[in-house]
Every structure is written in C-alpha cells, then in structure tokens.
C-alpha cells in the first residue's frame, strides 16, 4: 500500500487526522490498481496488448481509476514550457548534426541559430556540443506506421535515462559556514537558481549557478546542480567539468548522486571507460543508485559488444 | 526561421502533450518528442504539411509503444487488477468522486499526494503547474475535506 508523503506540513497532518480512515481506505483500494502512468497510457492506447486489455478490464469495474483517467485526460496544463520547447529543438538539431553527415557549415549554422533563439528566450547561454558524425542514413521516406516494426533500438539505453534529482542540501551548509548570516546569505543567493531548476528552466539555473560558482567555490550544491542543469541542456563537457568539481567537494550524502550524474555525462560523451569506472563504484555501494548503476553497467558491456546506434 | 523550425513551433505542443499523456514523465516526453521531430527533419522533403501533426503523433505513438514494451516487467501486476477491491467507506465516492465542489485538478492533486504519496514537486511535474499552485489546490481540497468531515460528524 502507498504511504503518505514524508513532507506533510502541520495543516495537512491535521486534516488527514480529521479525515479518519477515508484516505487510508482510498490508499488501500488504489494499492490493487494500475499505476497512474499506466492509466494515462491506456487512455492514449499505447500499452502492449496484454496490458491494455488488463487495464481496460480493471477500469470497467473501478470508478476511482475511471475518474482519475478522465481527470488526467481533461488537464489543460500539460504543454511544454518555453524552456522545454527550446531544449527539444536543441536536441533535434544536435542529433541531426550528429547523424546526418551534414557539412560543417550547415551544422554550425544550426547551432548558431538555435543558440540565438535560446538566448533571446531565456536570456541564457546554450553551449552546443559538436560530436563525432556518423554516416548518413538514406532510403525512401517511411510512413510513420511502417516504423512500428521492426522496433528501432532506443538511442539512449533505458538505464541511462536522465532524471532530475530533487533539491537537497548537505549538512555542511549548516556547519562549515562560519555564522548564521553567511549561511542565510548562501540560501538566499541559491534560491532563484534552485527555483529555476525546480521549474525545469535549466538555462536560467545553469547561468545563475555558474555565476555563484565564483562566490561559492567550495559548495558541492552549486557545482552539482550546475552539472545536472548542463546535462539537461545536453552540454556534456561543461556538465562533466562542474560535476568533477562537485565530486571533489562531495560528502557521503552527495557522493552517490555526483557519481551517478558523472556516469551519465561520460556515457553521453562516449567516454566508455570512465563511465564504467563510475558505475563500478556506485554498483558496489549501497546507495539508492546501486541497482540502476548495475543495470547500466550491463548496458555498457552490451554496447561495447555491439555499439549503440 | 527555416521551414523545419516553422513546422516545429506550430506542432510541438500537440506532440508533447500527446506524448506526456502516454508516458507521464516530462524528460521522456521530451526525448520522444525530439525523436518525432528528428524523423520529420530527416524526411522533410517527402512530407506533405497537411499530414501534420498526425504524422508526428503517429511517430510519437510508436515510440511510446516501444517505451511500454521495454517496461515489460510492469506486467507482473496484471493478475491483481481485474477484480478491483470495493471501497470500504461508502462515503468516499461522495467526497472524492462525485463531489461537485471538487474540480478535476483538485481531485488529482489530492489523490496524487495523499493516496499515491507523491511530493508537491512531483505533482507539479506531473500535471504541469507550479508547486505553489499545487499547494493552493491541496489547501482547497483539504478545507473541503474538513468541512465534509465536520458535516458527517454532525449527522
């Protein structure tokens, strides 16, 4: 059965107490139901045949799931943010430059146009990585339906999916800074950057954190969230540089996070041996990343045998 | 702005919205949306703009199908779903499901937080609003819950 979130405030805790067994009952009921993402996927009709029919059969007899599914379908707030729109465009341009064998001048022109667009929108700076080009694909234009079979391999292995880590602070924030005023100033300085980060505005968070990195050159938080923001902007060299600095500053509470995101940066930059090194460290440990790191190691070994396209 | 970018800006929201509904995770929706537009860029000369955004959504749908195929382990849950457990408190429907004062956005916030156990940040990500808005929706929902409980106690 799902648990209540651990960050309940006083108002929530009191209201839940007053609600008696209402929410307990709902949690108990939902524990036998398909997870929310699956309800949404069933509505879009993108589950495997077996899952689709199982979810459909369940929904037919479960009013709560039916209502949840309908509520999600009625949401009008699920558009991409302006930052996400620019990030997707950067990603498309970068992948196109990487794999279509286009001449240098064309790639460069794409990068400049994209960077200008992003700067204009977010008042930030986008660094675009120029990576090794692979041979051009050729052939007739496929219909999208024809692309279902055979299933193309994912360009990034599932184990290396980039997921945004939640914001946290080291105990060091409370102890290593000399007095309360300087600690409060640090948190005040960090607030806009972390707010941008929470809202997925990675251009803004990267720019703010880059500026703060001069003032707080010993802060693991600054370099870690700077590195992660750079990863989301697909600026891998800058991400790795920031995360390497974070690695030197990290205490036990941050070390697994830093190593995991370093491994992602190295994997996306094609640095297989470094990736393997970081993953070995995490996989052998007991952090929350251990299982994913072990799975990612298998992906790395598999791709070494047959390079990923 | 070149032809591709013009098409991109015209259709990106439709593709992203559809993809997010398929996978529920913004970073994966971004990835799949970019793959759909990359396919468009590669075949730009052979695509009739009248086919858009349908063509793009079909590509995105196929990628979403791949995503769910790769998550085959989820199928272990299938056996327990077909026979939903009855709601044990008969007034849950009245409060959560059929309550006319509770809009879908409030119900989603309440359910995701107090039934699914998600943080406010996760909910904000999931439904595309700010954490402050999530907090507001939760406060409204909880106030309504307290009011309902008080009325129930009076009866």
Structure description:
The complex is a heterodimer of chains A (309) and B (155). The model of chain A is unreliable at 100-142 and 145-154 (pLDDT under 50). In chain A, α3 crosses α5, α11 runs parallel beside α13 and α13 packs antiparallel against α14 (272-283). Chain A has 15 helices and no strands. Chain A is mainly alpha-helical. Helices cover 63% and strands 0% of the residues of chain A. Chain B is mostly helical. Chain B contains seven helices and no strands. Chain B has helices spanning 3-23, 26-42, 54-70, 92-97, 104-115, 120-127, 131-154. The radius of gyration of chain B is 21 Å and the shape is elongated. The model of chain B has no long low-confidence stretch (mean pLDDT 83). At the A-B interface, α1, α2, α3, α4 and α5 of A face α1, α2, α3, α4 and α5 of B.
Q: Could you name the key traits of this structure?
A:
heterodimer; A: 309 residues; mainly alpha; 15 helices; 63% helix; 0% strand; B: 155 residues; 7 helices; elongated
The biggest sheet of chain A, with number of strands, parallel, antiparallel or mixed sense and barrel status, is: none
Low-pLDDT segments, ≥5 res of chain A:
100-142, 145-154
What is the 3D form of chain B?
A: elongated
Strand content of chain B: under 5%
| Coarse morphology of chain A | globular
How would you name the oligomeric state of the polypeptide chains in this document? heterodimer
Query: Major β-sheet of chain B, in short?
Result: none
Please provide the count of β strands of chain B.
0
Helical element count of chain A? 15
**Helix amount of chain B, in percent?**
55-70%
Alpha carbon gyration radius of chain A = 23 Å
Helical region count of chain B? 7
